[in-house]
From TrEMBL:
HAMAP family: TMP_synthase. GO terms for biological process: thiamine biosynthetic process; thiamine diphosphate biosynthetic process. It catalyses: 2-(2-carboxy-4-methylthiazol-5-yl)ethyl phosphate + 4-amino-2-methyl-5-(diphosphooxymethyl)pyrimidine + 2 H(+) = thiamine phosphate + CO2 + diphosphate; 2-[(2R,5Z)-2-carboxy-4-methylthiazol-5(2H)-ylidene]ethyl phosphate + 4-amino-2-methyl-5-(diphosphooxymethyl)pyrimidine + 2 H(+) = thiamine phosphate + CO2 + diphosphate; 4-methyl-5-(2-phosphooxyethyl)-thiazole + 4-amino-2-methyl-5-(diphosphooxymethyl)pyrimidine + H(+) = thiamine phosphate + diphosphate. Mg(2+) binds at D71, D90. The gene is thiE. Binds 1 Mg(2+) ion per subunit. One of its GO terms (molecular function) is magnesium ion binding. It is an enzyme of class 2 (transferase). This is Thiamine-phosphate synthase. InterPro entries: Aldolase_TIM (IPR013785), ThiamineP_synth_sf (IPR036206), ThiamineP_synth_TenI (IPR022998), TMP_synthase (IPR034291).
Amino acid sequence: MPSLARLHLITDTRPGRDPLSVVRAALTVAGADLVVQVRVEDSATDREAYDLTRRVLALCAPYRATCLVNDRLHVALAVGAAGGHVGADDLPVAAARRVLGPTAVLGATARAPGTANEAVAAGASYLGVGPCHHTGTKTGLPDPIGPAGVRAVVDAVDVPVIAIGGVTAARVPALRAAGAYGVAVVGAVSTAADPARATAALIEALTC
Ligand SMILES: Cc1ncc(COP(=O)(O)OP(=O)(O)O)c(N)n1
Ligand SMILES: Cc1ncsc1CCOP(=O)(O)O
Ligand SMILES: [Mg+2]
């Protein structure tokens, strides 16, 4: 299995966004060094999620970039994506692992060492850890854990930690110093005036 890319771009499907053009731009810069996670609004139908994921997968394929699906693991299986990501409101990690099979990429959300350990024991192959900073992309989240919170999880597990929540290129060095393997972003790329340039800045920050 290829190693996990350090930059995870999560699709922004809020009204008025154009997730496919953002994914296209990011891929031209990052290529295989990108994970694209398809995340749709809870109100989206399975058919909408399926159609978007098929399109994202088609964009990723020529670059050999990894495509994951948030929450809806049946969609991941249906399109042949590399795996999925689950959190507290989704299938439990062990159940998600059974659904996806032993070799799929499976991410799980954690914000503390205890839940992080449980997720890894249940079969998570990476952890999404946060929110690290305040974010305008998702509401109802607990307080940000900052780089120190990331460090606490990193020290507890032996899988890659992907920091999420308010991540910008400027914030990457502190997160990497805290032991984060990589970062997941929505707004830093999708609301940028130039998503390709924003992707390049994140890649550069992650490679320093
Ligand atoms: C890489 C990564 N980390 C965390 C999340 C959040 O997942 P979850 O807690 O299930 O929340 P939703 O994204 O489903 O609203 C993620 N998607 N990706
Ligand atoms: C889905 C999710 N889970 C925790 S923060 C977040 C949103 C991250 O978006 P942004 O990169 O715009 O802060
Ligand atoms: Mg979820």
